[in-house]
Amino acid sequence: MEERDAYINQIASVLTRAEQLQEANNGCSDAEMEALRLKWEQKIQELFGLTKEELTMLNDENVADSKKEPIRQKILVKVTGTNPDMAEMERFEKMSEKEQENYIRQHPEFMQKMQAMAMNARNFSQKTKQLTEAFNGYEAKMGKLMQDYLQFMERENQHSYSNIGKKYSAKLRKYYDQICATDDAAQIDALYADADEILYKYRLEAAKEFRASLVRQMAEAKKIAAEYSRLTQQVVNSGDLPECAIGRMDLNAVIAVGNLLGEAYKELPKLDAQPVCAETLYELPNGWTFCYWESGGYVGGVDDFKIPGSQWPLLAFNERTKGYGAVERGKFRLITEEELKAINKQADARQKKGTDQKPPYGVYKSRSGKRSVEYSQTGEVIINGMTTFTPSAFSISNEKLEWIVVDEGKILKCTYKL
The whole model's pTM is what? Predict the structure, then answer.
């Protein structure tokens, strides 16, 4: 699995560099945003026929209304195209419907003024719409673009391989049960050979679907980046956004694809049926799961894990109650907020310090030499290049390998017969 580890490291290197470049080129400077603000301010001044000082006064909460009123009247004239007689309009609004009809018959010029004002207001509204049309259209298109992308990713994330697995799990379980029931090396080799052939067929079928999904996601990430740049460039060309707003969406595409590939190579596809003899050493109360980060870390041999939590507290969490607990020397108890902080602090210190017990990394062959198990430098146990585990303890004997895994609410001892 050295090739896989090397490939993961290469992906990580590319991602790191892309993120550095993106950070260096991300967003607009304060000067560019200030220039944009002044540009839009000038457009608003021209639209309403105001000076810079008048616009500043309108936006200043400390300026008295009496000083703002002449400016508002100036805006009203600009919008309606005339200086309306506000007293006459107020009197008209207070009249009854019959009085208004009589007033219009007696003063036909009043209705003409109202119609002219309405037409001018509509024309002004159209000018206002045109001023922000490009930017509003851009926001609407960007919103739809992001919504479509999220819906696409949600569909891909819900993609399940369980239907494929159902065709293989029961057959594999029969083989693994037979392996666990015998110590005959020749029989174990023969059973594993047959089981691995079935497992390979599953993995090949699942991998084809997985790869197709991966290709779709990568293509979508590139398409989104290109469309984002195209839409933003249009608004930049119209003068509504500065050039810096385009950013480096090409780097976003690189990062998105890199993350997809990184996730794809982190975990190999698994089935419920595993090629080991699993024994539950400890199980949390219903509703509780182990917190992997705080509970993780290499302890030593399997015998060092006979009493769970004897090396350090194993932290647990209850999703329903949002409470925390810990397993210490084989016993579970609820813990306080202060105890949680202390355990997290100990976990951080432990991770930084590392362990004095070095994991026995290496490749282990079966007695016949036909099968292999690698304990990789990444901390994974990889069986015949197809199934992975991340152990907290690992032991070796001539006839078997044993390791401990923390799996949701259980601590399991896994035995692989050589």
Answer: 0.59
